């Protein structure tokens, strides 16, 4: 008679072999996390304030696109594209850029040193808390102390996953090759002056770009994330006159939308459009907005702050936080009854503004007018101080 404990599960080699593949399948993908609303995979745009506006998902849902229109001759939308590309390069994603050359790679912002310091401080404080909790854990339970390293590993993994979703970048620095984990490919839409065009360059740049992206999506592993970047769509400086025909542009956006729906867990896209050349009142722009999942509009304010040079490393924090334009949200990706989107927070109850700073990048925040008479009081104080300094 064998002495065997009742109700004991007998482990076998077959069960252990079946459990190992399930662990490998649940490996998290860098730069992707589930949505806070419905659990769908999301990725960061590289701008934390923009992520917070995307229908409550705290990121750009996979398989969706953003169309950002901008008035005037400024390039604030281009800054968002640089952050979007830099975030993908740091996370190890595949970047596909249409309409630009290799030189754009050297314009990507570098990682901020403040982000590294804050992450190191948070890790140190979490380690101290885990040490204190581990010491008193055995006293509360009255049993032998547990493994302290296991708790530290769990806490470090959760903190790293939260902090590595959206990085902080510095506009005064350039992305270092040591921080680059992804790959970027450029597909110019126009021929270089002085270079004779090749046979394949005579085809539509939109069709060639769609074929290349579709081929790479079909032949890449499921864990590879792809980002499509289309800066200044239909701008005369980047696209030929034949590319601005409505049938060419709309077919391109329709094909890109089909790829986003075909690969809902591998592809996102961000497009910018100069609204001064293609206003929202035209039929072509309205169709482009209908073929995009999210539509934002940037309205720069015509003031001295707009035409000022880019912020330097010695610039004042107050000057960096000056309002430089307004933001309008026309549509959001995955807007349904679960995702609050514009009905949450201040997105629907007030106007939005943006400011560009060196360390924080482009920050979208509520727009408030200063109290009446506050500017006059500041001018009087400044005038009195200047007069007092001149007296002897």
TrEMBL record:
TM regions (residue ranges): none
GO cellular-component term (any): elongator holoenzyme complex
GO biological processes: tRNA wobble uridine modification
Protein's UniProt keywords contain tRNA-binding: no
Region annotation Disordered: where it falls in the sequence: 1-48, 142-163, 373-392
Main location: cytoplasm
Key words, A-Z: Cytoplasm, Nucleus, tRNA processing
Pfam assignment, any one: PAXNEB
Composition bias, Polar residues: 152-163
Listed pathway(s): tRNA modification; 5-methoxycarbonylmethyl-2-thiouridine-tRNA biosynthesis
Protein name as catalogued: Elongator complex protein 4
Lineage, uppermost ranks: Eukaryota, Fungi, Dikarya, Ascomycota, Pezizomycotina
